[in-house]
Amino acid sequence: MRSPKSGFASTTSLRPLLAKELAEIASGRALWTMLLLVCPLIGYSFVQAVSLYSEASVAALQSPAAAATLSPLDGILVPTFGSFYVAVTLLFPFVAIRVLGQEKESGALRLLLQLPYRSSTLILVKLAAVLAAWAVASIPALSALAVWVILGGHLAAPETANLLLGHSLYGLLVGSIALFAATISDSSATAAIVALAATIGSWVLDFTLAGRSGLSAWIAQLSLTQTLRSFEQGLLSAGLVLGILAVVGGFAALSSVWLPPGIPMRAKFARSLLCALLTFAALGLATQVRTSLDVTEDRRNSFAPADQELLATLRLPLVITVNLAPEDPRYIDLRRNVLGKLERAMPNVSIVLAGSRQDVGGASDTYGQIEYVYGGRSDMSRSTSPREVLPLLYALAGAQPPAAMPGAEYPGYPLVANADATLLWFFCCLPLLIALAWWRSRKPPTVKSLAFEGGQP
Amino acid sequence: MELLRAADLTKRYGEDAAIAGVTFEAAAGEVLGIVGPNGAGKTTLLETLAGLIAADSGGVFWLGVALPPSRRKAAMFYLPDGIRPYQDRFTIQVLKFFANVYRRSTAEIARAVAALELQPVLRKRVSALSKGYNRRLLLAIGLLAPQPVLLMDEPFDGFDLRQTRSIIEVLRKSAGDGRTFILAVHQLTDAERVCDRFLLLAGGQIRGIGSLRELRKQTGIPQGSLEEIFLALT
């Protein structure tokens, strides 16, 4: 007599499940269609970016100061991957939905759920397949980087890797939302509507609530598009990475709750509430992680190396009270040029935002003032430039401003190149290779299956 | 010897009871047929047993010990009716996936392929299979699954008489090896050919349970067919 546990190893191999998920994605049309659509999109963006970069480089070749402003991160990488971002937002949900939607519609899910895997395992493996699909979908964008190098362009490894990390996390985020949408929807069409409502809704949030303060600003922070900004600016923020992973984990957990059909609705809602609470708690903790790294080659998110070294030695608490509304352009300048850099350079910085929207009209005399308190001494300024703020801080700390370090300047990477010929790659060669790979993937299996045809191993 | 017992299983959809107070047991190596017209609650009963639908009340017991829904998949494997799994994949790939999950050998896959005569369609996509071959593929998956109890919804749907007899032979052989089958069948002649005992279901309630001989005795129709007995009881 067989017991209920016979035939079920305590640890069932994940390999067949992962192989099945990858094969399922490859056998569907969604991924290949997305790849074919992405090729011209990426190609056009890349060629346009190279053209603009070249125009700027013509003048920069004559002037080192102008050359220093030319960074491939801003000029090539961000615009090229920007079009990939659009494709991931609009097309990738269809790819991600397929990993579950097809099984739901064909009834295969009822077989899958009986396999010796937990629901959470099934979802995590599907999420891994979604990430693999994102990696395949990024081939045209990655090929653009290779083309850039072939043209003689410069790529800085840390900032390129950071941007790729940001896009992969964004892809994973969109994938997890789409997977959750597929879990709770009866059909792929409904799931697509739900997923696109989330991704396109993010754009709407971003546009309509930009520059607002208070609750609106907080809601705007939930926009998916916010996730990429730091990475595009060359910042690797631990809090942001953890926050994205927390949300991805939250959607994965919700999908695991809603996947098995044999659980009463009340229990599913209770577990969902718990998942949501845990996700919000994790998100809250992630926002408290302030550690971030400036991975740009031009160190745009940091002060000059000599200043960085000196500021790191100022260990007393620095309290900065800013009398500016959050939507005030001066505050945005101050945040980018001074506050963010100080938070990364100094060990103990607190920022108090004292201004509000009502003060913008000039009703208060103190509006625009920024107070710096360090070591029991304080000073006031209205400047948003580090050239004025840093000497003020050094004076408060009783430190001598450091001498500039020679040779630390960013040289810039001007390049005059014509990328028009590469359109052939993006519009013809790469799509042809993709079509060929698609055709190959649809060929029936051969050698191994022969063993079964005679009924003998 | 009782292997599996369902006790007082009830599932309601709103005011309507799809199944109400269903109680029965199945022994090892037995083929139990759940017989009833369309809408009798056969599929609901199988899915409730498999843990794919949450029962409103009642329980399932394995060798006398309560078997919660989360552990049912270790004891039972359910083959639903009307599904066509992984349509874009080839038949051999689908078989190998399930075989690999359950760590079945190449020889075991080959035996299942031979038993169900799937050789001609191994390199066909599942979407291109006829209804009969799709049904055989499902049955092959069921044979590769290691669970002691196999639940099957309308296993003979899509087969002609000769094919049905061939499949019955496969099921009987597997039952002879000690595996238990619980089949939901609406074709009474098919059920009569393959099942050891019958659970007659109508309107979600059991109208009779037992072997053909016991049911004949119960209805007082000594030479009655299953069809006549069913009509007498429902």
Could you list some keywords that capture this structure?
heterodimer; A: mainly alpha; Glutaredoxin; 2 domains; 6 strands; B: 234 residues; alpha/beta; Rossmann fold; 37% helix
Number of domains of chain A: 2
The largest sheet of chain B, given as strand count, sense and whether it forms a barrel, is: 6 strands, mixed
Number of helices of chain B: 9
Oligomer: heterodimer
Q: What is the CA-CA span between the terminal residues of chain B?
A: 29 Å
Q: Assign the structural class of chain A, choosing from mainly alpha, mainly beta, alpha/beta, alpha+beta, or little secondary structure.
A: mainly alpha
List the strand order in the largest sheet of chain A: 4-3-5-6
In DSSP terms (H or I, runs of 4 or more residues), the helix count of chain A works out at 19
Main structural class of chain B:
alpha/beta
* CA-atom Rg of chain B in angstroms: 18 Å
Biggest chain-to-chain interface with counts: A-B, 47 and 55 residues
Determine and state the CATH class of chain B: Alpha Beta
Q: What would you call the shape of chain A?
A: globular
Give the gist of this structure.
The complex is a heterodimer of chains A (457) and B (234). Chain A is mainly α and 457 residues long.
Architecture overview:
The complex is a heterodimer of chains A (457) and B (234). With 457 residues, chain A is mainly alpha-helical. Chain A is built from 19 helices and six strands. Chain A folds into two domains: 294 residues, no CATH class; 93 residues, Glutaredoxin. In chain A, the strands form two sheets. A four-stranded mixed sheet of chain A has the order 4-3-5-6, covered by helices on one side. Chain A is globular, with a radius of gyration of 26 Å. The mean pLDDT of chain A is 89. Chain B has a single domain, classed as Rossmann fold, CATH 3.40.50.300. The radius of gyration of chain B is 18 Å and the shape is globular. The interface between A and B is large, with 47 and 55 residues.
